[in-house]
Automatic annotation (TrEMBL):
It is found in: Endoplasmic reticulum membrane; Mitochondrion membrane. One of its GO terms (biological process) is regulation of apoptotic process. InterPro entries: CARD, CARD19, CARD_BinCARD, DEATH-like_dom_sf. GO terms for cellular component: endoplasmic reticulum membrane; mitochondrial membrane. Keywords: Disulfide bond, Endoplasmic reticulum, Membrane, Mitochondrion, Transmembrane, Transmembrane helix. This is Caspase recruitment domain-containing protein 19.
Length: 179
């Protein structure tokens, strides 16, 4: 969408009551007068800053004048509006249209929310199941040949202590049981 079309779309929003005040409009006109390339001549800037005319009339005339001048002039107006009235710039109807996502595009924030929407009970159930499977695998492992009591005592050792410490403890218990 060209800046001229965007400005035409935003014109009613910008000219409605109390959106832009006198100071902001004057700052925008001065910026358009002073930027390179000069968007408004000195005479045009004086015309649009004339305090005898109503703000609504001046702003409407300015927007129509910029639309006649072309896309570059409208783009500079949006830049000046962003610098001098950022909140209003973000609330423009044309900006909201530009921010609307493509319906075929995946909204990652929504997807992330949906994946994390299970709650703490689901997490605890999954964790308990994983811990139970790990414990079952550990206890049924044929490599460790430890007596039943030692196996029961050290059943939770992978969770509490490291692997090397566990092996040393099992060897110690095995030796103790043989004596």
């Amino acid at each position: 969408q060209s800046y001229c079309h965007r400005l035409q779309h935003d014109m009613y929003f910008l000219t409605s009551t109390s959106r832009l005040n006198e100071q902001v409009v004057d700052k925008i006109v001065l910026q358009l007068n002073r930027v390179y390339p000069q968007i408004l001549t000195n005479e045009e800037a004086e015309k649009f800053r004339n305090p005898k005319a109503s703000l609504h009339t001046r702003l409407s005339d300015l927007l129509k004048h910029l639309q006649k001048k072309g896309d570059r002039h409208c783009q500079e107006f949006y830049r000046a509006l962003q610098i001098n009235a950022e909140q209003l710039f973000n609330d423009l109807p044309s900006r909201k249209i530009l921010k609307t996502p493509d319906p075929t595009e995946i909204d990652t924030d929504k997807e992330q929310y949906m994946l994390n929407d299970r709650g703490p009970v689901f997490f605890l159930a999954c964790f308990s199941m994983a811990a139970g499977l790990a414990l079952f695998w550990y206890c049924c492992n044929s490599e460790t040949q430890v007596i039943g009591r030692a196996r029961r005592i050290l059943g939770f050792s992978p969770i509490i202590i490291g692997r090397h410490v566990r092996n040393i403890c099992m060897l110690y218990l095995e030796d103790m049981s043989k004596n």
